Amino acid sequence: MASSAGTVNRVLRLAGPALLPAIAYGAYKGNATGAIESFFTGPGRTSRIIALVVVLFNWKSLPMAWTVRVWSAMVSHFLFRRFHTHTPDKLFHPVITSTHVSLLEVDYNLHKSNSTYFADLDVSRSHLVSHLFARGCRALAHNATTKLVVDPSSSTSEPARGKFGVMLGAVHCSFRREIAPYQAYETWSRVLGWDRKWMYIVTHFVEKGAVRPRSWDAGSFGATRKTDGEPQEWERKIFATAVSKYVFKIGRLTVHPVVVIGESGLLPERPGGWVAVEDGAAQPAGLVTGGELPEANPSEWDWRRTEEERRKGEEFVRHFASLDGLHSRFDGGEDGALGRFGLG
């Protein structure tokens, strides 16, 4: 993800200033105004306008639309929002994106097809990681200079080399309610937790406008809850909930998630650090020390509150992570197969 964004960043910096005048001149020479007027007033205008409306309301299902949605998320945060910073108390805050069910996402039950949720997850996760961990991803993308991750095979502590990337390892989605054609909804994605290899992200599909946060972080805007009021039954507003896991890589080397989180300024100081080594393997210190956490100070966000939130997520991701063992249950049709069918 980060390596792709870095390439786009460099291309836009070099080509952007030249492309804008070229586009403007081309529109002028090509009489763009006349073409637009002819489109809306010339013969056959009704069919063209109807076709335009259909395209506008269903653009997210057009060819290459997924690529545009995902890349625009990465480019907007890595290129145009490069200077944002967040404090550790924002680590578990969600990012919210809005979209709707397009016509081509509707199945024969006349609601959003289950398979289309995963495209929305790609977009939502891209916004979260590109925004929250922009500084960490940028530092690791230049690891040869920053030397954050050392090549374990090097006897002289040389930095690990290779392209930095963020890879998706697995997704689980639990469906609760259907979403009707053209109905608007929001995706709320946040960090759920992490272990020595994976970062886990939870995403909720929520009715648009039904839930408002108590506040917005710096640089964001939108409506908020007017009063705290009584605890709401938010589950009634949820269409589906998904858990995804990401792994960070430099070449073929796995990067511990706390490196990315820490370099993004999102980890408070912790006695002994956030990573411990047990049996030669690095893992979160919380998994090594175990036991009860010291009581956290409610007036400040310290390492105990961060670890407490991580452990809350761990209760769910432990079961999710165990599903990797299902790969071993594939037997290659040892006892036979039902058949081979077309139009798959």
TrEMBL record:
It comes from the Eukaryota. InterPro entries: HotDog_dom_sf, THEM6_lcsJ_thioesterase. Belongs to the lcsJ thioesterase family. This is Uu.00g096020.m01.CDS01. It comes from Anthostomella pinea.
